[in-house]
Design the sequence.
């Protein structure tokens, strides 16, 4: 669903119609392990997730809230690359764990 801009747009448009119809104030995205190979994840999932949230905000503006559930375990977060460093100092070591393409 998040692998292409066309699929993301289809999802976002559908989600917006759903929230309008049922009176939701926002969405909570629970994609806790987007890169975890043991859960079917791919390395591109993290970038796709960031694109999904950014495109969602661009389309929804301030009309809807967006929250995300993040993996609570450093094991799953060690190979993710956030778009900005939220908790300095940021580690600079590259991920050394094999991930499926």
Sequence:
């Amino acid at each position: 669903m998040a692998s292409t801009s066309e699929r993301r747009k289809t999802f976002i448009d559908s989600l917006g119609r759903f929230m309008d119809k049922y009176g939701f104030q926002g969405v909570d995205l629970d994609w806790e392990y987007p890169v975890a190979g043991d859960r079917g994840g791919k390395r591109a999932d993290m970038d796709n997730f960031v694109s999904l949230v950014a495109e969602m905000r661009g389309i929804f503006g301030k009309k809807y809230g967006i929250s995300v559930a993040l993996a609570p375990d450093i094991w799953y977060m060690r190979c993710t690359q956030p778009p900005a460093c939220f908790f300095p100092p940021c580690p600079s070591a590259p991920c050394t764990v094999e991930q499926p393409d």
About this structure: Residues 83-91, 93-101 have pLDDT under 50 and may be disordered. Residues 5-77 form one domain.
